[in-house]
Amino acid sequence: MKPKFARCFFSIAVFGLYVCPVSVCVKPVSIKHAPHDSVPTNSPNERANRIQEASPPLLKPKWNASQKVFLGMDCGSSGSRLCAYVYDNETKVLNAIGSDNCFHVRPGLSAFANSPENAGPSLQPLLEAALNLSIPLDTEVFLGATAGLRALSVGRANIYKVDRIMRSVRDIITHYKPALKWAEGYPRLLTGNEEGVFGWIAANYVLGRLGKAATDSMGVLDMGGSSTQVTFVAADPTVVPAGFR
Q1: What structural domains and CATH numbers belong to the chain?
Q2: pLDDT at residue 53 is higher than 80
Q3: Which member of 90, 184, 194, 195 is catalytic?
Q4: Of the four listed, 19, 163, 220, 244, which is most buried by Cβ atoms within 10 Å?
Q5: 124 among annotated binding-site residues
């Protein structure tokens, strides 16, 4: 499995849990891989203003009623990534949108510990790139921050910094309405357990093993910039230390 695709595990897993019943998610995903192209350099504020002022709206839905478009953002320690997908409820297939649907920026959100007000604006190139994919209005965005911010959250003073970083991230979406909106409960900081479980769900979904016997599932090793998750179905859960369940 290509490393660039592995970084999209979060968005695939979250969307599957949020939109699809289990009976749907057992089907393998059909997906095209996109390179981490550089993001557009034109002003995101100009584009956001055009969305607000355009009549009729600049972004016209080209999707039918059975399709659900969503954006997944994985904000890790070394950088932030955005990938765009469309799920078809009739065919039960998840596809990448276009040939260039994944984008990446550096540094990660934790780099803004001393300037948290800049955390949200650092994601603007990703959101701007998403607008260029001709997504429909009110497209939901799922953003999960991972180990970089988890490490930063140790200590009372640092927790305050993390709160300010996440507030800046939440506020940035206002510049992109009505094109984009946060999915319910997002953005948020994921726990290490959630990160591991999301990766396991996504990998087994892609491989067509989700919903089958536990012995048919695939274990997942996710080695990130600041954390590592090993997730698998244990033959005897009691032998797994409590802190790792």
Answers
A1: 3-244 (3.30.420.40)
A2: no
A3: 195
A4: 220
A5: no
**Residue 228 is labelled as binding a ligand:** yes
In whole angstroms, what is the distance from residue 116 CA to residue 38 CA?
24
Q: HEC states along the chain?
A: CCHHHHCCHHHHHHHHHHHCCHHHHCCCCCCCCCCCECCCCCCHHHHHHHHHHCCCCCCCCCCCCCEEEEEEEEECCCCEEEEEEEEECCCCEEEECCCCCEEEECCCHHHHCCCHHHCCHHHHHHHHHHHCCCCCCCEEEEEEECHHHHHHCCCHHHHHHHHHHHHHHHHHHHHHCCCEEECCCCCEECCHHHHHHHHHHHHHHHCCCCCCCHHHCCCEEEECCCCEEEECCCCCHHHCCHHHC
122 marked among binding-site residues:
no
**Interval 92-150: pLDDT, tens:** 888 888 667 789 999 999 999 999 999 999 999 999 988 888 888 899 999 999 989 99
pLDDT digits (tens, 9 = 90+) for 55-105: 333 444 578 888 899 999 999 999 999 999 898 888 888 888 866 778 999
- The residue to which tokens 């300037």 are assigned: 115
Whether residue 238 is annotated as binding a ligand: the answer is no
Task: Please choose, from the candidates 106, 117, 38, 102, the residue with its C-alpha nearest in 3D space to the C-alpha of residue 76.
Answer: 106
Active site residue 195: yes
pLDDT at 52 over 70: no
Please give the structure tokens belonging to residue 71: 């954006």
pLDDT digits (tens, 9 = 90+) for 5-46: 434 555 555 555 554 433 223 223 333 333 333 334 445 555
